[in-house]
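User: Reviewer 2 asked us to show a designed sequence for the structure in our supplementary figure. I'm pasting the structure tokens here. Could you produce the per-position amino acids so we can include them in the response letter?
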């Protein structure tokens, strides 16, 4: 009974476990399906996501969105989610897709510039994002640009890039960035700050951001001298891209270096009166310029490049032409040398006039001049003809003077040629005399040298003969001495040999025996009793021949 009950309970437990596991799997599957079908929110790459709390406390009066970390409020969250996949409960949250804020970087490859240093196509310029926040602390009434935490235009701007901006909290206005092209500088004008002058006395400004011609004195009310003062800054922007807040500063781009301005007929020639009352109409080209050190004061006192050209250079040019032209008559203005002096004086006068406005004149070039009388008739041709006739007379007089000088030079030349011929003959005769004297002296010297040579040769030959005689005498005496000594030696040797053998007969027998070498022996029979006699005679004959041979060998 108990065993059956236990088995029943075990089977029931297993059934409950299977049911629980199956239920859990089904519930989890339903959750996953609900999560991926109902709760999933996909944000594309070019969108951002706003999350809205449906439940919670009301927002404070000064808030438009739910602050970060305070999600117990009802409303749009401040945080913006970027592209990706998110899961939100649709019961508690709403979502909204908004556009990402893109700040373009511009198209530098398509940039081209006007002569004033501005972009021709502003659509290719880089941008900055001017952020206007709709919530936060209320700034002071005179404060237009605020810091973080205040409502209004923010001090910091957005540089080129992509940003997630909550449109419920702020908006972004795109405005062109500052681009200073090569050959130009940017003059910065601070739009916000203190308007009071720090110092009412003139100040000396030395700009160090570019080449300068030296310090320039300008009124303190024109340039900024304080850290927070409103006005034009002393330092200029060098070529480059600057992402500045257009509500804080204004940048005026101005080319530096030299430009040219031409005033010419028929549109805009220069008119002035000469010293003799003629009306002069001239075409003038002026090369003028400014340095980076001069640009802030030019912007502060004059304006842009066109203002400088029209208000300063043109007016100064007309005044200088009138002042300097009154010192020359019409004929001087046409002639080359005096016209060059007028042009140099005009350049100096013009540069002196515009120097106080921080503008520099390199050259004023007179390109064309028309001379008119009081009725307006052109007198240029008549003056030119008069000048030409005067020049012809001057040239004719110069020619006559030159002919006279040429004749004088020719006469002097002929006289010089005659003097040269006389000098040549004189030199030739003197040369012949000197040559004859030199030849005679040479022959005399040669004869003396020949005679002396013969005397010297005779002396040498005499010495040679004396030496030969001495040699013969010495050689003869030496030969006689040799023979005598030889004979004496032979005699002494023979005597010694004879003394050694004891008698001459013994010596002779020794010599005979020594030299006796018979090759053939003949026996001569002379009869009875004569053999020894014949042999004795034969012995004496052989001994005598041996002695003779021995002496011949010695």
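Assistant: Here is a per-position design you can include in the supplement:
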């Amino acid at each position: 009974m108990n065993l059956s009950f236990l088995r029943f309970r075990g089977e029931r437990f297993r059934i409950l476990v299977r049911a629980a596991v199956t239920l859990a799997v089904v519930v989890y599957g339903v959750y996953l399906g609900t999560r991926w079908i109902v709760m999933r929110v996909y944000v594309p790459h070019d969108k951002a996501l706003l999350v809205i709390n449906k439940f919670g406390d009301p927002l404070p009066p000064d808030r438009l969105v739910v602050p970060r970390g305070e999600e117990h409020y009802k409303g749009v969250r401040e945080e913006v989610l970027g592209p990706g996949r998110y899961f939100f409960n649709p019961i508690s949250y709403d979502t909204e897709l908004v556009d990402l804020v893109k700040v373009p970087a511009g198209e530098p490859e398509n940039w081209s510039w006007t002569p004033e240093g501005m972009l021709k196509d502003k659509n290719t310029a880089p941008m900055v994002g001017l952020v206007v926040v709709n919530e936060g602390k209320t700034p002071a009434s005179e404060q237009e640009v605020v810091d973080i935490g205040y409502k209004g235009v923010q001090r910091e701007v957005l540089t080129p890039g992509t940003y997630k901006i909550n449109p419920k909290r702020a908006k972004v206005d795109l405005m062109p960035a500052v681009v200073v092209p090569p050959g130009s500088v940017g003059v910065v004008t601070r739009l916000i700050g203190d308007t009071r002058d720090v110092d009412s006395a003139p100040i000396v400004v030395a700009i160090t951001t570019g080449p300068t011609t030296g310090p320039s004195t300008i009124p303190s009310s024109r340039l900024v001298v304080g850290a927070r003062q409103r006005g034009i800054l002393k330092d200029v922007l060098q070529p480059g891209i600057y992402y500045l807040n257009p509500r804080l500063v204004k940048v005026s781009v101005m080319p530096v270096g030299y430009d040219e301005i031409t005033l010419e007929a028929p549109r805009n020639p220069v008119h002035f009166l000469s010293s003799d009352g003629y009306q002069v109409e001239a075409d003038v080209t002026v090369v003028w310029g400014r340095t980076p050190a001069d640009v802030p004061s030019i912007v502060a006192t004059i304006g842009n490049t066109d203002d400088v050209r029209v208000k300063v250079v043109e007016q100064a040019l007309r005044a200088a032409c009138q002042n300097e032209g009154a010192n020359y008559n019409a004929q001087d203005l046409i002639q080359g040398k005096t016209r060059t002096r007028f042009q140099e004086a005009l350049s100096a006068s013009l540069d002196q006039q515009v120097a106080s406005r921080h503008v520099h004149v390199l050259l004023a070039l007179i390109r064309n001049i028309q001379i008119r009388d009081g009725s307006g008739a052109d007198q240029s041709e008549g003056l030119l003809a008069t000048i030409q006739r005067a020049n012809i007379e001057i040239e004719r007089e110069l020619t006559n003077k030159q002919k006279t000088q040429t004749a004088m030079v020719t006469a002097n030349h002929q006289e010089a040629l005659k003097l040269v011929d006389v000098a040549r003959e004189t030199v030739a005769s003197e040369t012949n005399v000197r040559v004859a004297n030199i030849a005679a002296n040479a022959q005399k010297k040669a004869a003396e040298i020949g005679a002396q040579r013969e005397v010297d040769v005779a002396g040498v030959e005499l010495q040679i003969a004396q030496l030969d005689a001495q040699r013969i005498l010495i050689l003869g005496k030496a030969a006689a001495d040799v023979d005598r000594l030889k004979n004496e030696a032979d005699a002494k040797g023979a005597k010694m040999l004879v003394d050694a053998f004891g008698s001459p007969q013994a010596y002779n027998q020794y010599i005979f025996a020594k030299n006796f070498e018979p090759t053939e022996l003949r026996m001569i029979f002379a009869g009875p009793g004569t053999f020894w006699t014949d042999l004795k005679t034969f012995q004496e004959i052989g001994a005598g021949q041996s002695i003779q041979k021995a002496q011949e060998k010695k």
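For the response letter, you might also mention the following. Confidence is low (pLDDT under 50) at residues 197-221. The longest strand covers residues 360-372.
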